[in-house]
């Protein structure tokens, strides 16, 4: 029998087991040779066809290849240098009136979460919805639990080992994973990293009970109607989504770009939209309010000028679809 003292940690992706170098062979490790891919709410491995919208389910996808265990961390995918990115970035056409103003901030500047609050119209509806969701979860949890069943709370790596597992304290993340512009973090935490393995190892920021059964509802993409109007100092955007879930939602921006990720309803549907803004905003002076039937985003203008549109329409031209009349519009 191998000694635990001689065991090493395997860093092959999706493995994470301890192994004895003396008994390590070419079929010992089941892992993913590819890299994690996150696109349009889907999560998958580049080496596999299976994809999911649930982060915990993604982490539990078994490896698609076998090889030796390795105690060496896989290298991070190389990123193009800033100089190369700037050289390859195509120029952005700006409206004539904006060319006369100050230089427009870079659209790739870091994004910041906009401060948010819960409106009075949402509080009773949110309380009722969360209770209904909790009752549905309790019904599911009444079923038999198999040994080694993983906890479905986000960020928890524990498995069910017996009745005593039910009285353990679960350390998990109450928010959602965010992958944006190379950064990886939880919406409930301020710690950010570019390394996927470091992201997975972040200890949860919330305590509670383990969840051995998956929620009956699953997150799915949804379309929401939204409109906007403006004052001299602000741009107000209303996203119509009944019973938004603030704990699972966030709105972030930089001076010229807005990213909305809004979860709503018992089904935890997700509305996601990114907008290149017509004008420049002051992110720190902006606010988000979650209301009973909508989310209201108030963007503070950096300059007291009238916006012709919410979006910057004059983006990179698509020469395949252009006609001679496009420049005269």
From TrEMBL:
GO molecular-function term, one example from the UniProt record: metal ion binding
Domain CHORD: 10-69, 151-210
Region ranges (Disordered): 69-104
InterPro entries recorded: CHORD_dom (IPR007051), CHRD1 (IPR039790), CS_dom (IPR007052), HSP20-like_chaperone (IPR008978)
Domain CS: from-to ranges: 221-311
PROSITE patterns reported in the protein's UniProt record: CHORD, CS
Key words of the record: Metal-binding, Repeat, Zinc
Skewed-composition ranges (Basic and acidic residues): 75-84
Protein name in the entry: Cysteine and histidine-rich domain-containing protein 1
């Amino acid at each position: 029998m191998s000694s635990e003292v001689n065991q090493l940690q395997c860093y092959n992706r999706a493995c994470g087991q301890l192994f004895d170098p003396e008994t390590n062979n070419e079929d010992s490790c089941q892992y993913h040779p590819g890299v994690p891919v996150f696109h349009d709410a889907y999560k998958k491995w580049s080496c596999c066809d299976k994809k999911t919208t649930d982060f915990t389910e993604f982490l539990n996808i078994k490896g698609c290849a076998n090889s030796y265990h390795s105690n060496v961390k896989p290298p991070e995918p190389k990123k193009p240098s800033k100089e190369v990115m700037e050289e390859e970035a195509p120029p952005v056409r700006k409206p004539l009136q904006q060319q006369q103003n100050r230089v427009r901030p870079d659209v790739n500047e870091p994004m910041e979460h906009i401060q948010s609050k819960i409106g009075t119209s949402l509080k009773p509806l949110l309380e009722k919805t969360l209770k209904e969701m909790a009752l549905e979860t309790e019904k599911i949890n009444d079923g038999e639990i198999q040994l080694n069943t993983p906890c479905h709370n986000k960020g928890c790596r524990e498995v069910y080992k017996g009745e005593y597992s039910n009285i353990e304290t679960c350390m998990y993340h109450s928010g959602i994973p965010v992958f944006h512009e190379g950064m990886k973090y939880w919406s409930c935490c301020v710690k950010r990293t570019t390394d996927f393995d470091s992201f997975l190892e972040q200890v949860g920021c919330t305590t509670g009970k383990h969840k051995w059964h998956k929620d009956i509802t699953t997150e799915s993409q949804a379309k929401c109607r939204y409109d906007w109007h403006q004052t001299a100092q602000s741009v107000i955007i209303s996203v119509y989504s009944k019973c938004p879930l603030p704990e699972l939602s966030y709105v972030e921006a930089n001076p010229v770009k807005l990213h909305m990720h809004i979860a709503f309803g018992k089904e935890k549907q997700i509305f996601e939209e990114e907008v290149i803004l017509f004008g420049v905003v002051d992110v720190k002076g902006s606010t988000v309010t979650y209301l009973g039937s909508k989310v209201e985003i108030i963007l503070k203008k950096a300059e007291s000028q009238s916006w012709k549109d919410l979006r910057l329409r004059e983006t990179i031209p698509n020469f395949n679809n252009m006609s001679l009349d496009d420049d005269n519009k």
